[in-house]
């Protein structure tokens, strides 16, 4: 049941539970002991995807978190990492999935170690902006022109990375549009699940005819 819930729901549940613990302990007179629960609750609220401010985490261009972020947002970062690990183990997905020649979904970022890396910070359950999708597609296309493999990843490889891969498949002339690209990916990776935000971003990216498909 836990894994069927979205990360947004779980973070909201965690924030509420922690705040109730804070209120309960404070009401009993344990003010000092209650403060960590208040801190963790506020961090969970600030980290909720509805806030949609990935800049708060200070993620670097190589996809890593700076020390200050690991300390301040540790309740959120490690909660999500553990949840992601358990969810991946439960799904039984392979280490990587090849969508097309040279285009892959790695299960974890470590699989891309040693390769050129480009990061577009995007909150869980949110979508890359059309401009970010365009930048990612252009970067990946340049790398692919050099005959380098492309690994597109997020936490699960089910939403944000799928949106970028859909655009990349269109831009490379592999599929006619992002909807057909999604179908192609789903054949290779059955657990993908883009939401309305991902589809809206792809529609906007398509409408502006960014990265014209190759002939």
From TrEMBL:
Pfam families: DSPc. Residues 131-200 form the Tyrosine specific protein phosphatases domain. One of its GO terms (molecular function) is hydrolase activity. The keyword Glycosyltransferase does not apply. It comes from the Eukaryota. Keywords: Membrane, Transmembrane, Transmembrane helix. The chain crosses the membrane at residues 63-80. PANTHER family: OS01G0859400 PROTEIN, PTHR47216. This is Tyrosine specific protein phosphatases domain-containing protein.
């Amino acid at each position: 049941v836990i894994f069927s819930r979205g990360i947004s729901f779980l973070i909201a549940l965690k924030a509420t539970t922690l705040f109730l613990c804070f209120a309960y302990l404070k009401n009993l007179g344990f003010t000092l002991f209650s403060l960590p629960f208040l801190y963790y609750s506020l961090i969970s609220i600030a980290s909720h995807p509805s806030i949609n401010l990935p800049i708060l985490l200070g993620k670097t261009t190589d996809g890593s978190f700076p020390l200050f972020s690991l300390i301040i947002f540790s309740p959120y970062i490690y909660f999500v990492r553990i949840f992601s690990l358990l969810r991946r183990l439960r799904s039984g997905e392979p280490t990587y999935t090849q969508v097309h020649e040279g285009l892959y979904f790695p299960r974890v970022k470590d699989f891309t170690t040693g390769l050129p890396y480009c990061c577009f910070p995007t909150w869980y359950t949110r979508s890359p902006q059309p401009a970010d999708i365009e930048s990612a597609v252009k970067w990946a296309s340049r790398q692919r022109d050099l005959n380098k493999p492309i690994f597109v990843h997020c936490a699960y490889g089910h939403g944000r990375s799928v949106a970028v891969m859909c655009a990349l498949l269109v831009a490379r002339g592999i599929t006619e549009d992002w909807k057909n690209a999604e179908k192609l990916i789903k054949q290779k990776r059955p657990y993908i699940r883009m939401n309305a935000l991902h589809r809206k971003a792809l529609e906007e990216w398509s409408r502006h005819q960014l990265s014209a498909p190759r002939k």
